TrEMBL record:
The keyword Cell membrane applies. One of its GO terms (biological process) is transmembrane transport. Signal peptide: none annotated. It is found in: Cell membrane. This is Peptide ABC transporter permease. The chain crosses the membrane at residues 66-89, 101-120, 180-198, 234-255. It is a multi-pass membrane protein. One of its GO terms (cellular component) is plasma membrane.
């Protein structure tokens, strides 16, 4: 499972960095005379409703999805781990306040929040989408990090370090973090696929990435009205999205099995 998902992810990263390796054309080059045509020589996926090559757009669409997924996951993991780790270690008022804040964020539906917050954004870049995902995604990681730190700080090696006069910063960085980071890594890896799917959903609804950006969600949205007459324009970007999300979820499961001694 790990090898299969890793191969798919490495391939996605390669085409995200250098899509021209397997796609020589431009995703923005379109010919209305070829709109909704099927597969042909040099165009194995056919054309979409605007006469754009579906194969080229599917390849270039990986860049936006992987970029959003990776950066959003990093942002969520760092912010959630820091806030949750501090709350779990120090407890008291800080822990109580953070717990109530996370409860508020958990009550916000993600898609509805995206429709409200991103509908006023006019930027065509990935940064507003990444910022939104970090804003609503950190509470999950925060709770996991908090629980892991609370468990780790009860161990004897932490008590011994404190008895020897180690500072709070040293205990957190040298003793607690290495032993509490495993569940954060597992959940973050699985969540990466979720963020990719969320980006496609928001782009499909018209509040995520916007044209002329190239995204699987944008292409799926544009091809939806022609699904009965030209299903190829919808199936290929949808299939690429499904394979990508599945690969990251499989990788997360494999990492969980590797890091959890109870599952070995």
């Amino acid at each position: 499972m790990f090898l299969l998902s890793a191969l798919v992810i490495v391939f996605l990263i390669v085409i995200s960095v250098r899509p021209s390796v397997i796609a020589s054309g431009s995703p923005l080059t379109c010919d209305l005379a070829k709109a909704r045509e099927g597969a042909g020589p040099g165009h194995p996926f056919g054309y979409d409703g605007q006469g754009c090559d579906v194969y080229t757009r599917t390849v270039y669409g990986a860049r936006a999805s992987v970029t959003v997924g990776v950066l959003a996951t990093l942002g969520v993991a760092v912010l959630g781990s820091v806030l949750g780790g501090l709350a779990g270690y120090f407890g008291g008022l800080w822990d109580s306040v953070l717990s109530r804040i996370t409860d508020i964020f958990f009550a916000i539906p993600v898609v509805l929040g995206g429709l409200v917050l991103l509908s006023v954004v006019t930027s065509n870049t990935v940064w507003p989408v990444i910022g939104f995902m970090v804003l609503l995604g950190w509470p999950q990681i925060s709770r996991i990090a908090r629980g892991a730190v609370i468990t780790a700080k009860q161990h004897d090696y932490v008590q011994a370090a404190r008895a020897l006069g180690a500072s709070d910063a040293r205990i957190l960085l040298r003793h607690i973090t290495p032993n509490a980071v495993a569940p954060v890594i597992v959940v973050s890896t699985i969540a990466l696929g979720t963020y990719i799917a969320l980006e496609a959903t928001l782009s499909y609804l018209g509040v995520g990435l916007k044209p002329p950006s190239v995204s699987w969600g944008i292409d799926i949205s544009a091809a939806s009205p022609y699904i009965r007459n030209s299903p190829h324009a919808l199936l290929w970007p949808s299939g690429a999205l499904a394979v990508t999300v599945l690969a990251f979820i499989m990788l997360g499961d494999a990492v969980r099995d590797a890091l959890d001694p109870k599952l070995r």
